Amino acid sequence: MVMIHHSDTLCEDRWPELAAALRNGTCAVLLAPQPVMMAPARGIVAATINLMVREARGLVCHAMTAARMLEAGLPLIPSTGQQPDAWRFAVSYEAGSGCSTGISAEDRARTMNAGAAERVWPGDIATPGHIMPVLGDPDGPSAMTHAPSAALRIMRLAGVSGGAAICTILDADGAVADIGTAAALASRLGLCAVRPDEVSSMDPG
């Protein structure tokens, strides 16, 4: 598995290596205002879910577009009183078959693969469940700062389909980590750390 070490900037000559790592299923750290550990949702394995739960320690979510939510039959949860930049969640889901409790790393990997499949057919997923879909727009201005949108843009730039598995990084006190803490985590784990603005202007092709 390709491992990329953190540096202060994502130079052009490092992007092909990062893209190859994501296509290989390797996690990376996104240094957004709400930093996350991210990986491709399609093909995700239990070990990657476990890494997110153990090291990032936030909620494991499936970032996807509005069109994908509609196709999968996952309606947005109505929101009231939220900040304009708050994450928008859809109804949680589970794989339609093959899960036991649904909460284990293996079950959550199975569930996310079901939700990230090229087509989601009736019966492939069930609601509610243990994976939270979160709305992202890889083409909008929110991709500059909004972690779900930025993660989707990065996955698309890397040639990865099916959305992104993301998990908010918490610090030792259980608060959302700051950028420095998230970067240090990436360095300790040997993962690439990337800022949304480093890829926001790249041509998705």
In short:
With 205 residues, the chain is an alpha/beta fold.
Q: What features would you describe in this structure?
A:
Strands 4-5-3-6-2-1-7 form a seven-stranded mixed β-sheet. The two termini are 26 Å apart. The protein has helices at residues 15-23, 46-56, 66-72, 105-116, 147-157, 179-189, 196-199; strands at 28-30, 36-40, 57-64, 93-95, 125-135, 164-169, 193-194. Strand 1 (28-30) and strand 2 (36-40) form a beta hairpin. It has 205 residues and is an alpha/beta fold.
Q: Gap between N and C termini, in Å?
A: 26 Å
Spans of 5+ residues with little confidence (pLDDT < 50)? 1-11
Radius of gyration: 16 Å
Q: How many strand elements?
A: 7
Task: List SSEs in N-to-C order.
Answer: HEEHEHEHEHEHEH
Beta content comes to: 15-25%
Compute the average pLDDT.
90
Structural class of the helices, strands and pairings? alpha/beta
Q: Which strands sit side by side, in order, in the main sheet?
A: 4-5-3-6-2-1-7
